[in-house]
């Protein structure tokens, strides 16, 4: 295992693509093991692809790309403007609400951050918001998509950890809205101190709010339809991914009438590219997962941790600290695939609900995409808005602290996360 870990980090430092760094590191285990034939490593790659729940990934990726071409984004922006632009820091508040609504459409934090940076970022800067503040609001706000269903990260966690994806989706609702509230309060506090005013001085009437919601109804109904379909037993999580593609097509072609055949072809190309990247990581992670189980890494780490404390909250807190540090250097998808088989067997015997742990884990590892030194969402937004990374780092500190505080609250009160899935499933 030591050689495997060293190989992985050396290859990462050399700039080898993550998927191939995982694959080559995993292969070194079988080459040097002396007990297991190398052919078993190849079999593990093939075995990782033989999973029905894994079909949810390409379906949801394609649905997200199609949704972005159906006019749904602009309708959600209009809805968000009506609902919150009258608050202090109005345009920044729109970004937070839009991330929440887009979480039910794209399922990807980086995709959401890039979209908002292109569409809303220039308007915020022209309105007097600093580049660092604008970039921080957009990048950290996109973290909400890590929990709001359909989150691709939750799908992968459920696939690797054999945890109900339906329960994970339901569990992500309350944390997603709590994160929205916490980040909106942070924006309000900073805006009041700096004099960032509201985008409009007039509060919306009930009629205006209702009209805005009705105008964006097909986007707002999308995550609701997915949850109802899973909860009602109409579809499995994999089948509901196919339903999401059909839903996006029907809305785009026949309701909004903005999705063209050219758009559909572009969405397919982008979805194939994204799916290929994700699945390469998943397949090569099969070898590493086998090595982890063979070397009994979960048992060794569990013995070390329980030697320090057997208090479940403290054990999970230690794991979350480790995940936060790891997330600073490694992409969230990789962490979920590599570390879920290690940490889930540690926390379950202590009585920690795997759904509760999954929400905490996804929030923390996705936060790494918004923090240096290798935050993908951070660099995406900063490059699109021409913002110095140093300025972004300073401005993002209050938002990161707010998210960490929320994670601590959810750790101490599991009922906040488990209330909805326990009530409905």
Set out the fold topology.
Layout: H1 2-13, H2 18-33, H3 38-49, H4 56-67, H5 72-84, H6 90-103, H7 109-119, H8 121-126, H9 131-141, H10 152-161, H11 165-171, H12 173-194, H13 206-215, H14 217-231, H15 237-255, H16 261-294, H17 297-308, H18 312-327, H19 332-347, H20 354-367, H21 376-385, H22 389-412, H23 415-424
Helix pairs in contact: 1-2, 2-3, 2-16, 3-16, 4-15, 4-16, 5-6, 5-13, 6-7, 6-9, 6-12, 7-9, 7-21, 9-21, 9-22, 10-19, 10-20, 11-23, 12-22, 14-15, 16-19, 17-19, 18-19, 18-20, 19-20, 20-22
Summarize the structure.
The chain has 425 residues and is mainly alpha-helical. It has 23 helices and no strands.
Mind explaining what this structure looks like?
Its main location: membrane. It holds the Pfam family DctM. Part of the tripartite ATP-independent periplasmic (TRAP) transport system. With 425 residues, this protein is mainly alpha-helical. It has one domain (54-424). 77% of the residues lie in helices and 0% in strands. The chain has 23 helices and no strands. It has helices at 2-13, 18-33, 38-49, 56-67, 72-84, 90-103, 109-119, 121-126, 131-141, 152-161, 165-171, 173-194, 206-215, 217-231, 237-255, 261-294, 297-308, 312-327, 332-347, 354-367, 376-385, 389-412, 415-424. Helix 4 (56-67) runs parallel beside helix 15 and helix 11 (165-171) crosses helix 23 (415-424). The protein is globular. The mean pLDDT is 81.
């Amino acid at each position: 295992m030591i050689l495997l870990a060293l190989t992985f980090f050396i290859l990462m430092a050399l700039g080898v693509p993550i998927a191939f760094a995982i694959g080559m590191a995993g292969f070194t285990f079988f080459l040097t093991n002396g007990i297991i034939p190398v052919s078993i490593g190849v079999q593990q790659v093939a075995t990782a692809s033989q999973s029905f729940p894994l079909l949810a990934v390409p379906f949801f990726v394609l649905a997200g790309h199609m949704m972005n071409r159906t006019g749904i984004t602009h309708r959600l922006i209009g809805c968000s403007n009506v609902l919150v632009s009258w608050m202090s820091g109005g345009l920044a508040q729109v970004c937070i609400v839009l991330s929440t609504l887009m979480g039910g459409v794209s399922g990807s934090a980086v995709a959401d951050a890039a979209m908002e940076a292109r569409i809303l970022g220039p308007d915020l800067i022209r309105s007097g918001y600093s580049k660092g503040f604008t970039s921080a609001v957009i990048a950290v706000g996109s973290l909400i998509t890590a929990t709001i269903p359909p989150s691709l990260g939750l799908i992968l966690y459920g696939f690797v950890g054999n945890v109900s994806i339906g329960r994970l989706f339901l569990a992500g609702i309350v944390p997603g809205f709590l994160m929205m509230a916490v980040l909106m309060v942070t924006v309000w506090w900073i805006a009041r101190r700096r004099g960032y005013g509201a985008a409009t001085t007039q509060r919306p009437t009930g009629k205006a709010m209702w009209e805005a919601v009705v105008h964006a109804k097909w986007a707002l109904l999308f995550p609701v339809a997915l949850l109802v379909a899973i909860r009602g037993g109409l579809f499995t999580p994999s089948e509901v991914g196919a339903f999401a593609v059909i839903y996006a097509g029907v809305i785009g072609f026949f309701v909004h009438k903005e999705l063209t055949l050219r758009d559909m072809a572009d969405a397919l190309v982008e979805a194939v590219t994204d799916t290929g990247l994700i699945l390469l990581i998943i397949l090569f992670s099969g070898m590493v997962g086998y090595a982890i189980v063979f070397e009994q890494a979960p048992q060794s780490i569990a013995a070390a941790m329980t030697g320090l404390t057997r208090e479940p909250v403290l054990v999970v807190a230690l794991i979350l600290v480790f995940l936060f540090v790891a997330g600073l250097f490694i992409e969230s998808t990789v962490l979920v695939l590599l570390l879920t088989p290690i940490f889930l067997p540690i926390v379950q015997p202590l009585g920690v609900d795997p759904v509760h742990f999954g929400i905490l884990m996804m929030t923390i590892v996705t936060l790494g995409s918004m923090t240096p030194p290798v935050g993908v969402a951070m660099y995406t937004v900063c490059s699109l808005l021409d913002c110095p990374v140093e300025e972004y780092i300073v401005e993002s500190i209050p938002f990161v602290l707010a998210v960490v505080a929320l994670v601590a609250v959810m750790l101490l009160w599991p009922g906040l996360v488990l209330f909805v899935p326990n009530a409905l499933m």
